[in-house]
Amino acid sequence: MILPVYLYGHPVLRKVSTDITPDYQGLPDLIANMYETMYKSEGIGIAAPQVGLPIRLFVIDATPLAEDYPEVKDFKRIFINAHITRLSDEKMETVEGCLSLPGISEPVKRSTQIEIEYDDENFNHHKEVIKGYAAIVVQHEYDHLDAKLFIDHLSALRKRLIKSKLLNIAKGKARVSYKTVSA
């Protein structure tokens, strides 16, 4: 089932997410619905807050970008109760967009390597080092769990330059091909 994507300005996007337990009701269906929503929206990742749920869950399928970023060739994962434990000092700047911020793409600097702990869909615990563009994608989705958006990494000047776009999104004036919920 395709879920609506919550847009910039909705309070759920600014609420810190909480961990969940294996008995979280409807989790397998939620994960399947998040993937379906992400694919329909032409995204490579989506976090639970973007579908209205302030829980520590996000899904990623960055494989469509493998031609440009070989390290994401088989990078399709489910992250539950994720916590980044280390960020490298080395940064890489890439242009980011977000399903919750349609029509806005801006350059963002992020760490090129992270250490992360998370549970998979069977609640098997993982500790992993993720590098390169895969690390960038994970950090973007992870930010949603901590009530952050990629625009929070922009300079004050860049934020002022996109202010009218942000106001229009918050007012529900975004034109997208997927279902949305405005503030």
Describe the protein in words.
By secondary structure, the protein is an alpha+beta fold. It has one domain (5-181): Peptide Deformylase. It is built from four helices and nine strands; from the N terminus they run E-H-E-E-E-E-E-E-E-H-H-H-E. The strands form three sheets. Strands 2-3-4-7-8 form a five-stranded antiparallel beta sheet, sandwiched between helices. A hairpin with a 5-residue loop joins strand 7 (113-119) and strand 8. The longest helix is centred in the first third of the chain and has 14 residues, at 27-40. It starts with a strand and ends with a strand.
Topology (elements, then pairings):
Blueprint: E1 5-6, H1 27-40, E2 45-47, E3 57-61, E4 76-87, E5 91-96, E6 106-111, E7 113-119, E8 125-131, H2 132-145, H3 156-161, H4 163-170, E9 180-181
Parallel strand pairs: 1-9
Antiparallel strand pairs: 2-3, 3-4, 4-7, 5-6, 7-8
